[in-house]
């Protein structure tokens, strides 16, 4: 049986989704100019080479290299530095309408990932503007990654029912695989990813996620990490940037927002389910965190 882990729980809470636009051969001189977006664009070079230009930065990408732009920054993908890119909001539609050339200078897989931005878990504020992962296909675990890419390209080239749904689900796997590789390359020292990357703290974090409705105390969470109360509190605070109790409160309130906006549970039931004893205390904490009361959020969600 596969145990849940802290990163999976965060991604499930924020409802991570992906959309794969295409996996296709690009003709010589190709270029794409993408405007800023609320989504996180993803580009993977399957064959050949290309250039990523973002602001004043320029990165040369080779086969197996991948880039994710978590903040949706405006960027340009180019065959060469001299290429003239296509621009505008209909780039993807135009490319999909064009027949794929028999030969070309590069083969690209492009898409985006997205999540519920109202559930602003601190993980997403920590991700850099550019996540660049080199040689995804040639590193340890590359064979599995290559299989995922093969599945996406096979579905893209066919017309089987549900092909789009399959490619999008595989796109989610693609994103998580890229995030794992980036964590392995960069070894974060601060924040959610640093906490997840520490086996003992990760056990405690997952325990908080799965037991937030219970009356948790620091001693119980520290035991889950296999650490003393003081050592755990110090190490968690240093890694996460906030005390364990503050993170527990944050997780409870994010869960509460999800339930208030997305379910028909009565508000007293929401309060109990996320681990609050006092409905009034919950309402105050909720308003402090989100700038509106649970009742206001529910009315707005139902109106929408």
Automatic annotation (TrEMBL):
Keywords: DNA-binding, Transcription, Transcription regulation
Superkingdom of source: Bacteria
Cited Pfam families: Cupin_6, HTH_18
Domain called HTH araC/xylS-type: residue spans: 202-300
Record's protein name: AraC family transcriptional regulator
Originating organism: Albidovulum sediminis
Organism taxonomic ancestry: Bacteria, Pseudomonadati, Pseudomonadota, Alphaproteobacteria, Rhodobacterales
């Amino acid at each position: 049986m596969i145990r849940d882990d802290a990163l999976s729980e965060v991604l499930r809470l924020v409802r991570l989704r992906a959309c794969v636009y295409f996996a296709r051969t690009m003709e010589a001189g190709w270029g794409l100019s993408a405007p800023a977006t609320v989504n996180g664009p993803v580009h993977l070079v399957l064959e050949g080479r290309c250039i990523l230009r973002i602001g004043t930065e320029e990165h040369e990408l080779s086969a197996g290299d991948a880039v994710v732009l978590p903040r949706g920054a405006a960027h340009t993908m180019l065959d060469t530095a001299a290429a003239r890119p296509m621009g505008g909001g209909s780039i993807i539609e135009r490319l999909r309408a064009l027949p794929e050339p028999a030969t070309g200078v590069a083969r690209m897989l492009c898409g985006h990932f997205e999540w519920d931005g109202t559930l602003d878990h601190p993980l997403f504020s920590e991700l850099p503007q550019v996540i660049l992962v080199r040689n995804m296909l040639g590193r340890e675990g590359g064979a599995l990654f290559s299989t995922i890419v093969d599945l996406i390209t096979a579905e893209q080239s066919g017309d089987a029912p549900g092909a789009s749904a399959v490619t999008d689900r595989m796109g989610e796997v693609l994103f998580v695989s890229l995030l794992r590789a980036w964590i392995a390359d960069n070894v974060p020292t601060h924040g959610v990813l640093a906490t997840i990357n520490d086996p003992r703290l990760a056990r405690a974090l997952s325990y908080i996620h799965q037991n937030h409705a219970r009356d948790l105390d620091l001693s119980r969470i520290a035991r889950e990490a296999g650490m003393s109360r003081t050592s755990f509190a110090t190490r968690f605070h240093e890694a996460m940037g906030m005390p364990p109790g503050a993170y527990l409160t944050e997780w409870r309130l994010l869960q509460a927002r999800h339930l208030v906006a997305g379910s028909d549970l009565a508000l007293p039931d929401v309060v109990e389910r996320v681990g609050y004893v006092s409905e009034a205390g919950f309402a105050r904490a909720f308003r402090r965190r989100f700038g509106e009361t649970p009742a206001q959020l529910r009315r707005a969600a139902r109106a929408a």
